[in-house]
Amino acid sequence: MLKAGIGLTKNLKFLEEVSEKFGKDDEVVVGCQMGKRSKMATEELVNAGYTGITDMAGGYAAWVKSGMPVKSNA
């Protein structure tokens, strides 16, 4: 998703950009802040034939809430 004004719009080059960095069998963890955008991205990748995709369900917020480790530059 890309910022568009005050909202978000779908990145029409998403699959193209992913394919430049990852192969269809690479292990990739997809995450975002709350989990909604990563779920959409994961579904799009799987539908495009990517096999090593894992969605970080609940996003970064769920990761922190569950007590998983985080690193801060502060």
UniProtKB/TrEMBL annotation:
It holds the Pfam family Rhodanese. InterPro entries: Rhodanese-like_dom, Rhodanese-like_dom_sf, Thiosulfate_ST/Rhodanese-like. Residues 10-72 form the Rhodanese domain. It comes from the Eukaryota. Transmembrane segments: none annotated. PANTHER family: RHODANESE-LIKE DOMAIN-CONTAINING PROTEIN 15, CHLOROPLASTIC. This is Rhodanese domain-containing protein.
